[in-house]
Amino acid sequence: MRKSLIAVAIGATLTVAACSDKEATQAVNETAQTEQTQAVEFNQSNPFYAESSLPFHAPDFSKIKFEHYKPALLAGMEAHSKEIEAIANNAEAPTFENTIVEMERSGALLSRVASVFYNVAGSNGNDQTRALQGELAPLMAAHGDSISLNPKLFARVKAVYENRDSLEGEALRLVEDTYKGFVRSGAELNEEAKDKIRAINTELSSLTTEFQRNLMALAKENMVIVDDKAQLAGLSDTEIQQLADAATAAGHEGKYAISITNTTRQPILSSLENREVRQRVWEASAYRGTGNTETDNRPLVKRLAELRAQKAQLLGYDTWGDYVLETSMAGSPEAAQKMLRDLVPAVVSNVEAEKAEIQAMINSEGGDFEVQPWDWAYYAEKVRAEKYALNAEEVKQYFEFNRVVEDGVFYAMNQLFGISFEQRDDIPTYGDNIRVYEVKDIDGETLGLFYGDWFTRDGKRGGAWMSSFVSQSELLGNKPVILNNQNIKKAAEGPTFLSFDEVSTMFHEMGHGLHGMFSDVMYPSLAGTSVSRDYVEFPSTFQEDWMLNEKVLNNFAKHYETGEPMPKELLDKVMAAKNFNMGYDTLEYIASALLDFEYHTLTPEAAASIEDVAAFEAAALERNGVAIDAVPPRYKSTFFAHVFAGGYSAGYYAYMWSEILAADAFKYMQEQGGLTLENGQKFRDTILSKGNSKDPMQQYIDFRGQEPTGEALLERRGLTTPKID
Ligand SMILES: [Zn+2]
């Protein structure tokens, strides 16, 4: 998804790369607090008053205190509004320079303070920062609207757009991007249509909030109460105690309460021996919100699909999917659907092979039943233990934190791009255990600053992400100041060891980091990771695969005590286990992504005429060839928060689209000699330096010489040939 106009207006500093489909659903903001914002003094004593004098304009955390944020943010919005008014009311005829470029220059103060505040709130937040975020949300939204709905400003943007013949390259793309942003917000509509859009937006906002709130109620309503401890066989004593505590807290003293998590699949199902309890847990999950308890999300699903279809048509699009994907790399729902559907036959044949193994395991234990969705994880775990016995603790001994950072991630980036990382201990930070590096280019020139905030702390949100304090821009003379965040638990003393996934994630986030670091564009709103959602995870997923490159792995995966490289036997096991159950994982994702499109490629009439959500869902899965009883979609309609509560409607496909690009590009690079500076330079020139200054498909073709295909993704996931024993 293209950035909102507000982000365009204040530069790309708020761009955060979301990174995994498990992390993308953020809780909908608490109802906006409309506390009166009294005038607060903003003067030179506030460290945000002037640009930071530290190298690269890095925020000076030796001076920044919480009380500085609010006055600086309010002053930032006010200053930005004045700048925008001056552009809109300029007496001179509109030109690219006096309108579009001036918009790019505007909002410097707001950008400066917002990038620091939101980063700190995410990485080292507390009640104060959360309260201020709640207070700011409606103000920032209103500020954004005051720009995107400013008719005088739009008239000037439109005039520049209509005279864009003389422009080319990045300038042309910026004009088109800015103009499209206004049009997509409804700037071209008459007052009657604008009123309708506003009404739809209001209802959409309240329905998505209600959907999110319902999910919390549904989790409570669908809690599974177990009377007898014996029914919990397979769980550890600690787990059982946790369930007992949860039951007590829920008013069921002496019993055991199993809470359901937000996916169809429930983690506890892999260890619960009792088949009846497994079935109860699975059904509580899969039927949630379908009228099985008090809270019913079915009417919301229908109404949301209908309202989005209405909004799309008012804005001149056939369907919501056409509207959303207009600014994506895929370009249309049809293109994205085709890419997913092309994967289905290979994925399904792998699922069938996995299913046969699971069925064989059931049979060998004398089970006289066909595998059901509540059985899959339990027996898959048994198959895994038998075929891929892997001691995670043993593996970790080869992934010591400092070695992974320096001899793994930094080393790989040095081999590919020639860059190096020099630690700077003189730059103040916002919390403990954050490392700051100056990144040096192959010729010794400085590229920018990189903050590695890899360890978990109270007040840090979950998951991993990349963001920036300053984004690159030639226009503003800024070099990038980039952050990577992760939630690695630091050992109380002695070395810290990482899991396989944590190492992979570190490579991934560095991929986003270099997308920001290598950015080489003129205009801040086109910099670095400010690209479409189906493109942004491409450069990051691409870098993940260097972790298993032989040269890289041999350089960092050494035993923390002996320094011995990881034994081949162990490595083989790691590789084999990596793709275990991948047919299931892939199919449940694709099924949800295709379901998303089914709702968001409807006309308003078709959406209004959905009678039965469950029947619609079943027919949709059938139509797409992904209706396999034992492998239900990762999210079913009534708890598909990404698309009915979050901002991923018609966008859930994006993770896999990006992975297709990553796999295809990585495979191509291997064919061209793999880890070489020549290959790195080409990737940097065509992709990593371009930000959003060029059409993403064109960027891809510039690198690859052709459009991507899904073949390499199937190889990456080990899904090319069905594994039939
Ligand atoms: Zn990511």
UniProtKB/TrEMBL annotation:
Q: Name one Pfam family in it.
A: Peptidase_M3
Give the CC-aspect GO terms: cytosol
Q: Which GO terms describe its biological process?
A: proteolysis
Give a yes or no for keyword Zinc in this entry: yes
Record keyword Ribosomal protein present? no
Taxonomically, the superkingdom here is Bacteria
Mind telling me which PROSITE patterns this protein's record contains?
Answer: PROKAR_LIPOPROTEIN (PS51257)
Q: How is the cofactor bound?
A: Binds 1 zinc ion.
Sorted keywords for this record are: Hydrolase, Metal-binding, Metalloprotease, Protease, Zinc
Annotated transmembrane regions = none
Q: What one GO molecular function would you report for this record? A: carboxypeptidase activity
Domain Peptidase M3A/M3B catalytic, residue spans: 269-718
The family classification in the record reads:
Belongs to the peptidase M3 family.
The protein, known as: Zn-dependent oligopeptidase
